[in-house]
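Message: Just now I want nothing more than another pair of eyes on a protein record. I am handing you a single protein, as its sequence and its fold in token form. As I understand it, each token names a local backbone shape. Take your time, and here it is.
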Amino acid sequence: MRKPKIVLIGAGSTVFARNLIGDILSYPELAGARIALFDIDARRLRESEMVARRVSAHLGAPAEITATTDRAAALDGADYALTMIQVGGYAPATVTDFEVPKRYGLRQTIGDTLGIGGIMRGLRTIPVLLEIAAEMERRCPGVLHLNYANPMAMNCMGLARGSRIRTVGLCHSVRLTAAELAADIDVPAEAISYLVAGINHMAFYLRFEREGEDLYPLIRRVLEEGRVPEANRVRYEAFRRLGYFVTESSEHFAEYVPWFIKSQRPELIERFRIPLDEYPRRCVSQIAGWESLSKRLMDPAAPIAVARSVEYAAEIIHGVETGVPRAIYGNVPNDGLIANLPVGCCVEVPCLVDRLGVQPLRIGALPPQLAALIQTNVNVQELTVQAVLSGRRDHVYHAAMLDPHTAAELDLDQIHALVDDLLAAHGALIPGALRA
């Protein structure tokens, strides 16, 4: 049985690494895989290695597990590489992304995909991913790269244009939202089939069915009967206006559009229950939770639970290795996959996985209102990627000027000054050409 080499880059994210390793080793055909863990934080890497060995022992898997802070050694001969990095971490980078805009009256919820926070995260992350991809070209040119790092669309677009490595971006929002909708309409999730297309965090359920029955009337009934979950008011309002349900959460979607977060309209924040500063609060809570959970996971006397997660990575690896066909949702270059979105942008579409690899499916044209809305986000993604690849600082200003939420709140002078302040605050985390 072949023993594929699978590298986790950013493996110091102990809990997420635990989930992915558990997914991989739970397949008998992958139980003997060579798992290489890499992180720049030696302490967290040691913790992840201990947890990985516990997961392997719990599953009775004869996996070969190694851990190193040498990225080249980790990637040498890799068949699959999973990136799950956060450049700059919660502190100082995410804190900066939230606190500096607040001084201008610009509030955010998550700030990791679009908006001024997403732009800054893209400027920090794309160059690091390109460095990793260049290492892959030297050490494992045939590797399949599965990216989990946000901002997903910007990162994958930058990788597609700046490297020769095959990259597929992975996100669990399609599956999780389908489960949420199933609960809202009281239909078993396993009975539902769907077709989704768009961009990451702004893809839409073009079909949502049970054995050929259209379930959208049941979703509309949730609106009509006033049963919209409080945490999902934004998405249901978008559904009311657009006719299709979006894949990412309300707190995310609220900052991708100009309609909900307005400093001069505080009643909107209350009406739609928009959790401003949600991501920093979540980070603080998760950091505390991860520390506690990591300690329990490393305690040999404590039981360890291993269950398959909703992530696609292990399914993709298993499908390629065994030829067992699977359907997943991936983020890939738009090579005519969605007819009314720009060629070369990053789209999220269904993909077939088998021994031939990950094969995206052509969707055709989206409903025009969806394509038009998505285009407003693609504009920002495109300009951010262009800023990184060209080293042109003016494109950072352009990206911020065209960002829907930022432009709805700030004037041009404010946007220019905010970008200057953020680039200065992030310092060496931003490419040198963009800091000049």
